[in-house]
Amino acid sequence: MTDAASLSLQQFQRDFAAHLLPSTLGGGLAVHLNLDAPGFAVHVHNVQASLRSALESTYPVTRLLVGAGFFATMADQFVLAQPPSLGWLSAYGGEFAGFIARYPPAGGLGYLADVARLEWARVRAANNADSPGLDLQALTSLAPDVLEELRLSLHPAASLIFSDFPVFDIWRAHQQPDADLFADLDLSAGPQHALVVRAAALEVGVAVLSAGDAALMKAASEHACFGAACQAALGAEADYDLSAGLVRLTAMHGLSRL
Known about the structure:
By secondary structure, the chain is mostly helical. The chain folds into 2 domains: 1-109, no CATH class; 129-258, Alpha-Beta Complex (Outer Surface Protein A, domain 3), CATH 3.90.930. It has 12 helices and 5 strands. Strand 3 and strand 4 (203-208) form a beta hairpin. Helix 3 (60-66) packs across helix 4 (68-81) and helix 10 packs antiparallel against helix 11 (226-236). The protein is globular. Mean pLDDT is 83; it is low at 24-33.
């Protein structure tokens, strides 16, 4: 293929891709496509429908909370605003929660973006690489001053969801298809913090955190020293059982070390 032919093909591919999602058109993009050509509209519809379907699969609870029609409109707006940057659908939609938080029609549903964050965290956990996480047994061999300064982090597959709403209860209530979705929910119950983990292969878990657990995990997410993270947990919950908390969070594959 000549250089000229290669450049022509590349330009055609760029123009074709750009017109599949019109909002991706750049100001200086040359258009060489016949947009009225038979079948082009089918490609546009199929691309947008595939991306919307991917969002529906990733965010089933979010969709249940607002209904199919509202979700479809919101998803279509997201697709135009945030076209995919990677070549596989399982990686698409990580910015959806942030979009929901800025989406005016969802402004009265303060919990909706947090539920979406939780759902994306489950996808992220499922697709993350395996990692052993924190080894508490190995820590017992460290000198006290070394242990004190050991820097923690979240397990690579773990995510924290800090919400002003009972986000875990909302998500859990929607795991039963025939349940009365809001029958036992008090949306004004106050903050709730959730941890999403992958404790084993193909085993994604979601747990609600106590004040002490949440403080320890938040400190770990900020790469705090072991001693500072433990103090944060004890400061947040006066009777917090530090040893039991460390064992529990480590067993869940919530913690790691830098």
